[in-house]
Design brief:
The structure is a single chain. This protein has one domain (about 5-95): Transcription Regulator spoIIAA. Helices cover about 35% and strands about 30% of the residues. The chain contains three helices and four strands; from the N terminus they run E-E-H-E-H-E-H.
Length: about 120
């Protein structure tokens, strides 16, 4: 497996932390879905925090799982937060609004130089 999911809770048991690391490719979405389901099953009206600092890549299937988790959190009265996203993972999560956009409120778009400019 090229990914890891570590779980921890705070002292009160109200907040569940999922520390994600590695490459979350297409094969990882089942484990991610299971980890979120278990996190929501543990606490009543608690909070789930996903720390994605160690995530190198995130497949569309895993993004779908995170969006579903967010929807389930809203319906169930849970808190849901994605933290420490960086690089291309941050850009992807900003586009889905799972992470807040930067203050300048711009999305990344590559600049292609034409032959006449180069």
């Amino acid at each position: 497996m090229s990914f890891s999911i570590e779980r921890d809770t705070d002292r009160t048991g109200q907040t569940t932390y999922l520390l994600l690391g590695g490459v979350f490719d297409r094969a990882a979405h089942r484990d991610l879905r299971r980890a979120l389901r278990n996190a929501f099953a543990r606490g009543r009206r608690g909070r789930v925090v996903l720390d994605v600092a160690g995530v190198e890549d995130l497949s569309s299937e895993c993004v779908e799982v995170l969006l579903t988790g967010y929807t389930n959190a809203l319906r169930g009265g849970y808190g849901f937060e994605v933290t420490n996203a960086r690089g291309p993972v941050r850009l992807l999560l900003e586009a889905t609004r799972l992470c807040p956009r930067r203050e300048d409120d711009t999305l990344y778009a590559p600049v292609w130089l034409s032959d006449s400019v180069a």
